[in-house]
Amino acid sequence: MARSKGRTGRPWRRIWKRLRDSPGSEVCWLCGEPIDKTLPATHRESWTADHVDPISLGGAPRDPRLLRPAHRHCNSSRGNRLGSRGRALPTSEDW
């Protein structure tokens, strides 16, 4: 698969927009803090779509059920550690 790994083109933009516009997408799933969607994409606090199961470990790049909203720096800090399967990620609240 190409370097983009399925994260380009119209299908990806539709999935990305659907997640960004969905209720609850203004809170980072990793840290629990609000995300300012007006920030430019390069800002560390900007909104990104995080893959729960990293693509580098076999995650599906365009499966909307495996995408969660995250701050850019939270997404980058997590790296390719597993989310839904594997070890639990820290949260700011007790669920």
TrEMBL record:
<keyword id="KW-0540">Nuclease</keyword>
<dbReference type="GO" id="GO:0004519">
    <property type="term" value="F:endonuclease activity"/>
</dbReference>
<dbReference type="Pfam" id="PF01844">
    <property type="entry name" value="HNH"/>
</dbReference>
<keyword id="KW-0378">Hydrolase</keyword>
<keyword id="KW-0255">Endonuclease</keyword>
<dbReference type="GO" id="GO:0003676">
    <property type="term" value="F:nucleic acid binding"/>
</dbReference>
<dbReference type="InterPro" id="IPR003615">
    <property type="entry name" value="HNH_nuc"/>
</dbReference>
<dbReference type="GO" id="GO:0008270">
    <property type="term" value="F:zinc ion binding"/>
</dbReference>
<feature type="region of interest" description="Disordered">
    <location>
        <begin position="51"/>
        <end position="95"/>
    </location>
</feature>
<feature type="domain" description="HNH nuclease">
    <location>
        <begin position="14"/>
        <end position="76"/>
    </location>
</feature>
<dbReference type="InterPro" id="IPR002711">
    <property type="entry name" value="HNH"/>
</dbReference>
<protein>
    <submittedName>
        <fullName>5-methylcytosine-specific restriction endonuclease McrA</fullName>
    </submittedName>
</protein>
<feature type="compositionally biased region" description="Low complexity">
    <location>
        <begin position="76"/>
        <end position="87"/>
    </location>
</feature>
